[in-house]
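Data availability (excerpt). All sequences and predicted token strings are deposited with the supplementary files. A representative entry, Phage small terminase subunit, is shown inline so that the format can be inspected without opening the archive.
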Amino acid sequence: MTSPARRHFERVSAAQAARDAGDAPMQGDEYHFMQAKLFEDYRRLKSVQSIERKVAIKREILPDYAAYVEGVLEAGQGAQDEVLMRVMLWRIDVGDIEGALSIGRYALRHGLEPGDQFQRSTAAILVEEAADQALALEADDATLLEELQEIERLTAGADMHDQIRAKLHKALGNAHRAEGTPQEALTHFRRALELNDRAGVKKDIERLEREVKNADDQANA
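Structure token line:
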């Protein structure tokens, strides 16, 4: 376990490196150290076939990057940063959407790109990966809805495939339904269907339309 003193040093060093880099690609000893660690962790993950085991490994190693991320977000001015972007993705992979959002806000504000190995933009990755995680969860807490709503706001003007945007609307529909706001859920499910007729929301729409109609009928009785 990293000591508080070591974490403080890592955070301050990362902040200084980010400050010195300005909007040029990240440099500095702390960045190169974390880049080397990222490479080793990536190799470790590539050697594992089980998705469940990969997620467990990511949960294990992500705290090692926390101080670095804090420092960069504290002082960064938009330097391209391979470590930061990979941590954002790994946080989504383990279900830490809020943790990913802390990086996503910064990355979208400064126009950071995810790297050549990805075929999607930062906005598309944030939308699709977070939506996939949300759709796989059985969570019904307000936090998930708030996170998805923020992602929708942050990426509203970003260009991406309609199928990706449809996933977000489907996830928002599920979250609204879990929160007991069926009309809002219906709006998002309908939008998902407009964007992708194979979004898998037709039965949801039919069910909610009946629920909303019955509720209106009872209110007017």
